[in-house]
Structure formats: C-alpha cells, structure tokens
Amino acid sequence: xxxxxxxxxxxxxxxxxxxxxxxxxxxxxxxxxxxxxxxxxxxxxxxxxxxxxxxxxxxxxxxxxxxxxxxxxxxxxxxxxxxxxxxxxxxxxxxxxxxxxxxxxxxxxxxxxxxxxxxxxxxxxxxxxxxxxxxxxxxxxxxxxxxxxxxxxxxxxxxxxxxxxxxxxxxxxxxxxxxxxxxxxxxxxxxxxxxxxxxxxxxxxxxxxxxxxxxxxxxxxxxxxxxxxxxxxxxxxxxxxxxxxxxxxxxxxxxxxxxxxxxxxxxxxxxxxxxxxxxxxxxxxxxxxxxxxxxxxxxxxxxxxxxxxxxxxxxxxxxxxxxxxxxxxxxxxxxxxxxxxxxxxxxxxxxxxxxxxxxxxxxxxxxxxxxxxxxxx
Length: 377
Description:
The protein folds into two domains: about 30-160; about 175-375, Alpha-Beta Barrel (TIM Barrel). The longest helix is centred in the middle third of the chain and has 24 residues, at about 135-160. The two termini are about 25 Å apart. With about 375 residues, the chain is an alpha/beta fold. The protein has helices spanning about 5-15, 40-65, 70-75, 80-100, 105-110, 120-125, 130, 135-160, 200-210, 220-230, 235-240, 260-275, 295-305, 325-340, 350-365, and strands at about 15-20, 25-30, 175, 185-190, 215-220, 245, 310, 315, 340-345, 370. α4 packs across α8, α10 runs parallel beside α12 (about 260-275) and α14 packs across α15 (about 350-365). About 45% of the residues lie in helices and about 10% in strands. It contains 15 helices and ten strands. Strands 4, 5, 6, 8, 9 and 10 form a six-stranded parallel β-sheet that branches. The chain has a two-stranded antiparallel sheet with strand order 1-2. Keywords: Hydrolase, Metal-binding, Signal. It holds the Pfam family Polysacc_deac_1. InterPro entries: Glyco_hydro/deAcase_b/a-brl, NODB_dom, Polysacc_deacetylase_ArnD. This is Polysaccharide deacetylase.
C-alpha cells in the first residue's frame, strides 16, 4: 500500500459509524470523528486518553456494582468465577490509576479537570454527561456504548478463567500481556500465517515496509511448512526482513487441553529455527497459544526453557465479520488511548489489517508513541 492512500483511508475512517449497545440497540453516529479534537501532539494524546479512561471508569463501575446473579446473566454464562473476576477488576483499577499518573498537568486541567494523584473514588465522581461540551455528545454516547461491550467482553473472559484460559489473566511473569511496557510503547503482532505466496501475509509486510514498521509474526507450523515447500528459505528470509518469526503452534487448536501441545510447540520451533536460526538453536522460541489458551504445565515448560509466552492486551478482533475496517481501526485507537501501552493483536491471514494499520499510524503520527522493534524485545 502506498503512502498516497493515507488520505483515502483516513477519510474512510470518518464515514458513518455504527455502535451496538449492551441491549443490542444500534446508534448511528453520522459524520463525527470518534474524538472531536485533533490528535496533533503529546498533549492531545493525553487529553483524549484521560477522557477515554473516565468513560471506561463510568461503565466499569456500573458492572462493579452488579450482584453475582445479575452479572452471570449479563455475561450470558451459567456461572462465573468470582475470584478471577475480582482479580481482573483489581488489576484493571491499578492499571487505570497508573495511567492517570502518566498524564501531564496540562492534560489533567483540560475539558474535565482532574486533580493530580486522584484515587478511584475521586475519578468516579466526574459527571461526564453534564461536564462534556455539547460538541462531545456524539463521541460520549458512542464511547459509552463501546465500553459497555468491551467491559462485558473482558469480564466474560475473566469469569471463565481458568476453566477456559485466555489473555485476560497471566499465570506467571513469563507471560507477557503488554500492560507493563513503558508508557506509549506499542508492539505489533500478527497471528495464523503465513498465507501462500502473494497472499495477505505478503501484502501486509508491504504495508509495514511502507511505514517503516515491523512486528512479531506468530506462525502456524503447518502453514509455515506449506509456504516453505512452495518457496525457499532465502525467499522467506527476504519476505519477513526485520520482522520476527515466532511460534503459534503447529495447528490452530486450543492448546489448554490438547494432549499433543508439547509436540506442537517443539515441531514448530524446529521448523522456524531451520529457516530463522537463533544464536543457540536449542532456544525455545517465544510462543503465543491459539486463543490465548494454555495450562500450567505449558507455563512450567516455558519457564524451564527460559522462554516466554506472548499474550496481548489490545485485541483488534479483525477476524470478526461484524466489524468493518473503520470499526476495527476505531477499536484499536480507543484501546491504545485507554491502556496507553501494550501488544496489539492482528491476523495477517485476513485483509483488514492492511487498511487498519495505515489509519492507526496516520492518526497517531503527530504524537510521540513508539512502535516497538520486535527484535529489541
């Protein structure tokens, strides 16, 4: 994709957007930027980040007050693991408060004044609907609906943990979500490839090259082997260039209860090492379990091998047919402003990311966010 397509992609981003609330009602936001102010500096990033977090807190608190029975109904489960939900809530509050501490004094004073070092209760007192200027009404309505769905999505994952594991809660320090990165540092990651020659993987890498970006590609062993047989080691090395190739297992199957999980990991590790050898070929490459599902035995295996499991904290959901390019881009922008750091999850086997990345890159180009180099990680 050429840089000249930036303006086209960005205009698409401003087209009519549709949001679905928790009750399924559709809200039509016409001709309105997701954030009414220009994203033109670190200060503008911080102001937008502050407001995203304040709306998130408002929605979070509405879920926090629910009884167990009502929460169970709300997330459409037969039962919830209350300990895991409580763990996620506590971790989330801590992260949001730490993020508020990253805001500049100038940003704290803008739009909705917030005192420095405010605690959760103080932040919860903001009357957003009354305090936002009228020009922010459409953004506020859309953002509140977005977080209604997002908080429910996150609580549902926590409610299922550890019966069904996911990225929502780590087992140990060797599992990396991205929440502990330096402020405004973001890592691009891509799952499930590679596609066959001249497919979506190749097209995505062209986009990355255009914007001088790079990322981690978590490949499936079977897909990688097919591509290798149809190509060559040298061609794959040239294709991936400055990107980093890591393991997603042999097949796209939840590894938590997969009896062959170790063979899946080891076989894929050998395949990748034969083309992209590390200094020590006995190293166990970083691994991302499909769906984020893993077990404590797997974590112990990676701990013993002094390797890491790479999860994520900003899920694009680019695989979903219910989200178009503009909605995926907006989701990424909002979550980057909310969490202020982290690991972005995309899928190179799908085409949406090829359009989403230029939109996101263009949106933040005048701020000082850092796109991390995967080889420095």
